[in-house]
Structures are given as C-alpha cells and as structure tokens.
Amino acid sequence: MAKDMTLLWGSGSPPCWRIQIMLEEKQLQGYNQKLLSFEKKEHKSQEVLDINPRGQIPTFKCGNHILNESYAACFFLENQYKSQGNKLIPDSPDAQALMYQRMFEAVTLHQKMVEIVLYNYKVPEEERHDSAVQRNKEALTAELKLWEGYLNKTDCCLAGKEFTLADVLFFPLIAFLFHFGLSSESHPALAKYYNSLKDRTSIKATWPPTWQKIPELGTMKTI
C-alpha cells in the first residue's frame, strides 16, 4: 500500500508535516519520499509541477489519486485506512463536532502565522512598516489567546482525551510557533499541549530534520 504513495516535502513546513504524521498514525511507513529545499526553490521543479501545478509542497500522490492539500490528504488517508493504525475520527458526536470545529478553525491560526513569517522574511527590512509589524503581531496575539482558552477547557488533546485528526493538523502549527521562540510562560496551555504531544511516536518519527540542526529562532518571542 505505502509503496504506491509518493510525498515530496519540505522540512519545517506544517502542511508537509501533517501528512507525515498522518502516514505514521495509519502505519503506512515505507512510502516513497523526497526532501526538497525551499532555499534552492526545488518546490518549483518540474518533478513537483508534474503532480502539483501550483509549484508547492506537500505534493502527495496515493496510487492514482493526487492530494496536495494537507487537509484533503489527511481526510483521504483516514477514510481509506479506517481499520489500520490509529482511529482519528471519534465516534462520539460531541467529540466529533469539537474536532471538526477546531481543525477548521486552525486555518485562521495558520494564516496569521504566515502573515508574520512572510512579512519578516520576504519583505526587505527597509520596506517594512512598524504599523504593519504591530498589526500582524496583535492579530496573532489575539488568536493565540483564543487557543489558550480552548486548551484550558480540554484534556490533553484538542477534542478531549483522544488524539484525533484535529491534533494531526494543529500540532505542527504549535511546534512551529515554539521553534520560532513563542514564550511558554506567556502561553502555558499551549506549552502544556506541545509538551504532552511532542514525544508521541508519529510526531517524534517525523520531527523536521532541519530543526535538529538549527537552533530555535526568535521571530515569535515578542508575541
């Protein structure tokens, strides 16, 4: 099964990491994979464009099915391999509703993170405006305050005690934030969530290789 799958990915990319975690959770090790370099713009290579005309990674092929969006790939894998590995959609309507709400709500968090990262790394320093930096910072701070509140009301995972699809999609965002210097003291509930899951087998096995070589960065220290 896994031999019919191909994943082109980049280290530290939350969408790429989601699919990797998902494949581990469903016991689909042994798939074809290739680590690409963002710095060398390998995600714009013909190899990627042949599968993903957007020239983005993750680029994921499962048999004849192409699923380049991380949410789509994770849903597909859960539905196709329901009886294999860990079950990631709970039976309880309450837990299921909470799971769906949180996983799609995480799209907003991702967007606010990206706005800060892109502004810091893509816009030349002399062209940056303090007002835009402050606006982006305030938007992410307000967003994280919401998630602090959510996690204070749950057990170890987003939808209760069980690790679900919501955690597969959400955890890489939180790990990204802490790697880039988010304060544990200012975000205790997020820190507790992060620390409770970072050693989970599927997460540990797919930890971004570049993060093991590069020290934590300070982009998010002032959030």
Keywords:
223 residues, alpha+beta, Glutaredoxin, Glutathione S-transferase Yfyf (Class Pi), Chain A, domain 2, 2 domains, 4 strands, globular, GST_C
Molecular structure report:
The chain is an alpha+beta fold. Helix content is 52%, strand content 8%. The protein contains 9 helices and 4 strands. The protein has a 4-stranded mixed β-sheet, with helices on one face. The termini are far apart. Belongs to the GST superfamily. Residues 3-85 form the GST N-terminal domain.
As for the number of domains, it is 2
CATH topology of the largest domain: Glutathione S-transferase Yfyf (Class Pi), Chain A, domain 2
Q: Helices and strands, in N-to-C order?
A: EHEHEEHHHHHHH
**Structural class by SSE content:** alpha+beta
* Biggest sheet overview: 4 strands, mixed
What's the count of strands? 4
- Class of the largest domain in CATH? Mainly Alpha
Shape: globular
Count of discrete alpha- or pi-helical segments spanning 4 or more residues: 9
CATH architecture of the largest domain: Up-down Bundle
Distance between the termini: 43 Å
Q: State the helicity in percent bands.
A: 40-55%
Low-confidence runs of at least 5 consecutive residues: none
Overall mean pLDDT: 90
Q: Over all CA atoms, what is the radius of gyration?
A: 18 Å
Pfam families: GST_C, GST_N_2
Protein name: Glutathione S-transferase rho
Family: Belongs to the GST superfamily.
